[in-house]
Write the structure tokens for this entry.
Amino acid sequence: MKTLKDIDLKGKTVLARTGFDVPIENGKVQDNFRITAGLETVKYLLQNHCKIVLAFHIGRKGDKENPALPVAPVVEELKRIIRDVSFLEVSSWAGQTVKRMAQGLREGQILVLENLRLHPGEEKNDDHFARELASLAEVFVQDAFCVLHRDHASVTGVPKYLLTVAGFLVAREVEELDNATERPTHPALVVIGGAKTETKIPVIANLLTRGYDQVLTGGVVANNFLKNQKVDLKNSTVDQEYLDDAAAIWDQFQSKIILPSDYVWSEKEQIFDIGGETIRSYEDLINAAKTIIWNGPMGVFEEDKFRAGTLRIGQAIAVSSAKKIAGGGDTIAALREFQLLEQMDFISTGGGVMLEFLAGKELPGLKILNK
Ligand code: ADP
Ligand code: MG
């Protein structure tokens, strides 16, 4: 994979696609983790006297929890973090005016395009839109790890028309996740919980196939296996659609998939956390591990009564001497709340894309970078 360092960028006009998809509330960035993770690339471009056209997305059209919003709050946050740079906002993406502005950029100026996903061409991977974006610069730097599983214009479209290299964040994410999947030190553990079963079962299957030693389960993911074991789950959430998938990997890897042995029940008779006995046995396995990948909370940690499982498993991972990798939007939120983020060796900025990577799926955006 070619990166920034492999080409001569000095003084060039660069289209930088970053993953600044951050939560915004009342016009303010709530958490700038994905911005700080991408700063190394932006700073390197500035040091190399590049003229930067910056493009990224926020949220998704039609997504109520995470809507596609204009980029202004992110630009405010960037101004706060990067000094001595002037940001030019255009509330557009392409066309003659934008092109002229890109051509007229001076050193120390960054032209920021509007949220890519507010343009209908982005998600459709419209060829005309990709060409227009490509025409703004001489080099394309892909640093948005969080979208490499998407076939969008700024992921797979632009590289057709412009010399493309990976940014530092993409290079680091790929290296860390590749090492963790291909060359883990043993015992290698996956701790997996949370709610989105469909994205997690393929991860369990792939990592066990690649020689991971054990999977510790919690959350709705565990419920799916427990249901197949005829455990009475009362009103607990189960993903009916994925029971067969869970049964299939159980048949193949039974001895390696560890299920909770006790639970914390909600008033409505739902399993909302793993119990004390389970926590203790998971702690022992975590202590002995040399590689740990963690995705998905063990319970409904957002409520005090059900946070102990996630907190204690998080603490055990934090103090373990293993190589520790974590990712997933809610997992990172839990780590932040428990002040354990700093103690991980690597935090992935990709949610869905990390899971697809760990599941061994081919990522269209990565395939192009590897060409
Ligand atoms: P991540 O974003 O880290 O990949 P998910 O999105 O898959 O994780 O799941 C996180 C959500 O799962 C949290 O909001 C948490 O409350 C919920 N959750 C965890 N355990 C349970 C459970 N037993 N029943 C219902 N929801 C759960
Ligand atoms: Mg989530």
